Prior knowledge:
Serine Threonine Protein Phosphatase 5, Tetratricopeptide repeat, elongated, 4-stranded antiparallel beta sheet, disordered C terminus, 30 helices, cytoplasmic vesicle, Vps41, alpha+beta
Amino acid sequence: MAEVEEQGRKLSEESTDESEEEDTEEEPKLKYERLTNGVTEVLQKDAASCMTVHDKFLALGTYFGKVYLLDIQGNVTQKFEISSVKINQISLDESGEHVGICSEDGKVQVFGLYTREGFHENFDCPIKVVALHPQFSKSNNKQFVTGGNKLLLYERNWLNRWKTSVLHEGEGNITSVKWRANLIAWANNVGVKIYDISSKQRITNVLRDNTSLRPDMYPCSLCWKDNATLIIGWGSSVKICVVKERDPTEMRDLPSRYVEIVSAFETEFFISGLAPLADQLVTLYYVKENSEHMEEEFRTRPRLDIIQPLAEGCEEISSDALTVRNFQENQCRDYRLEHSEGESLFYIISPKDIVVAKERDQDDHIDWLLEKKKYEEALMAAEISFKNIKRHDVQKIGMAYINHLVERGDYDAAARKCQKVLGKNMDLWENEVYRFKTIGQLKAISQYLPRGDLRLRPAIYEMILHEFLKTDYEGFATLIREWPGELYNNMAIVQAVNEHLKKDPTNSILLTTLAELYTYDQRYDRALEIYLKLRHKDVYQLIHKHNLFPSIKDKIVLLMDFDKEKAVDMLLDNEDKISMDKVVEELKDRPELLHVYLHKLFKRDHHKGQKYHERQISLYAEFDRPNLLPFLRESMHCPLEKALEICQQRHFVEETVFLLSRMGNCRRALQMIMEELADVDKAIEFAKEQDDRELWEDLISYSIDKPPFITGLLNNIGTHVDPILLIHRIKEGMEIPNLRDSLVKILQDYNLQILLREGCKKILVADSLSLLQRMHRTQKRGVRVDEENICESCHTPVLPSDTAQAFGVVVFHCRHMVHKECLPSPGNVPGIQYCNICSAKRRGPGSGILEMKK
Length: 854
């Protein structure tokens, strides 16, 4: 098999340019092997003339008149001495129980392989073909045909005798015959005929195309694809014929069936055999010596092609040149192609050699991919079809792929494939790690090592870490972050890092990595020191995660220097672990940090840090004046005298004004606004806040000789003070900026007030009327009185048990009910205006009387 396939492939390689073939070579569709064992010995002494294939065995005829029954491996199981000359054809029925044999000396034998019944006849001319009825083993189908110079049909009658009928004669020798179901196809010198045994009619005659070829040198090849499709190959012509049923309305004197040629095309070489393969054809070609397409030494090598028939042509799918024994001496008629329908096996028969072709399976596909170094495709194919492959192992293919990548120098790809190929095999993992170490590529495989439930020995991980520590600090730090600390001996790595830090004590990468190692080892205090030294962002996360608050009580200043906001938030969130007094004590020498802490504390809770409010006044004054005034406004525990003293010392006018007003000295506060700030708007705003008539008088008195101030007052006091008071006090002849606009604004404000009052009055009247109407409608409604209602005076039912008697009930609008006789002034109902019960609570609508009489 290997020799035939390799030689066949060699022909294709040598027929084209090698560099182009490297890129365009396609995978073969078939694989080949020689039929050996007993066949080899037979063909050394004899030569094969014909062969028939059954699913269970093979039947081989030779030139010396012998017939051998072979198993599928080529071992001889039976031998028959039929004649002394060439066996022309062997036919088997579908059951494989009966065989028909014809020879060149005119002998025809039909017999059972497992019974004694048989037919033996000698003719006076060579018998070229014989074919048994496919169901010959059944009693009603004892039929077969023979062909020499005419085609004879033999049928066994009810007397157990053989009846002979001539189906055709007069057109030369019968060279080929094939029987399928009820159809017999045969070829003679003129063409191909088909005979319907059920209707006893010949239904077609397909003429051969190239009449210049000798029929005995280039015989016709016939093959039934199914019960209705016949494939004809003759010379270089191929025709595919389909037997169809004729429409009953068109029959007349015509056969009930007809043949339609669905495909016809010419081939490059001469056809020696045909066989179906799904919807494709397997063709055995004989290549003549004068072909211009082949080199001299290969010109007569037979070819086995797979083609796709089309309506008027064909498409070549694959082509293999076969090196069979003595192929240089063979002619077209010396080759035959037989096939086994059950297993898609194709037998190429030549006088001295028999080659078996079969479809390539997934193992063969993988073999080809590996041979072409397409390892990735081979691995993918093996993974997809791992249940169907027999000769290959997915892991071995993967290892071959890794080896190939390493040889090519693609170390990263090789390492990446290790993760997929090596899987859970720890021994293979370790071997690969050591191999990568040998070639100096430990870095490549480091990121793909197992690190989950399945792990290598700690020494493996430590070896890689040491390698990175020598050459790549950043890569070392990455591995420490990515690898769980349980993979390696933490103390050994810590010691190694410390050794490197002796040479480079300020290396931030090594220091950060050392802190992470200390964290893994739960030596958090050491890690915290390094993080604080480096001002690392993870320091706060480390403190929270591992509750390191006792360790930072003396490191508060360092934390604040690193990040004030985060440090303060952390301290305030964990007051139960680090007290406020402790923080203030630690920050006493750093007032700017103390202010940040106390300020955030005050924002969270105005009362929690009240004992430090006095200190905060000076801190705000020193570091954060914009927040001093809000602090003074919001703090209820701030000593006002101390605050006033500080603000006056620092000339903080706004804060002093606020403190003076809060202490009740509003006149002094207003004076400072007018004198120190000279801001009339602020003075007016202050007067509005205090809402003190005397302050307004002071403000007017101060502003009366200052025209800009008068303008401000005219624009703003209209809703608080009567503008006439100010206008009367303005000196005649004083020039006041924008006086006209100010007066217009006063008039507009007054007009607006009038409009607002009128609008409010209309709304009030409308609402009052609406509510009065609603009350009136409510009071006009009837009140339900039944036996469940009780007199509020005597506490008995208001309705008597006998309603036929006369009775009287007084119902107030408040829904209280009283017997008429129970009223304080009996007989004088109209004089009672209010419910006695409700009159103590209110006087007004709703307490009037409804009288009910009967």
